[in-house]
Amino acid sequence: MNAKKKNGKSNKKKIAPIKFRRSLFWDVDPKTIDPKKHAAYLVERVVELGNDREARWLYHHYPRPLLRSVIKHSRVLHPSSRVLWNELLKK
Length: 91
Description:
With 91 residues, the protein is mostly helical. The chain is built from 4 helices and no strands. The protein has a domain at 44-88.
């Protein structure tokens, strides 16, 4: 099946940009973060340190299986963060 719409634009879903807080990504330049390429890194940071706006963005822009996988396999998440997000993603 063709991945283009009638108007010639791609059907692939783009991840809407968000301006990340510098305190969330203190070790890198937030402008250099690619939401697709760095998805696991971004999910870990937002799950662990994100505010409500960032958590909503994460919840709405990444598929649930990806979020579940990152949360399950992450070696940096605090156990309480892992439990909370496992409960949030049950639906």
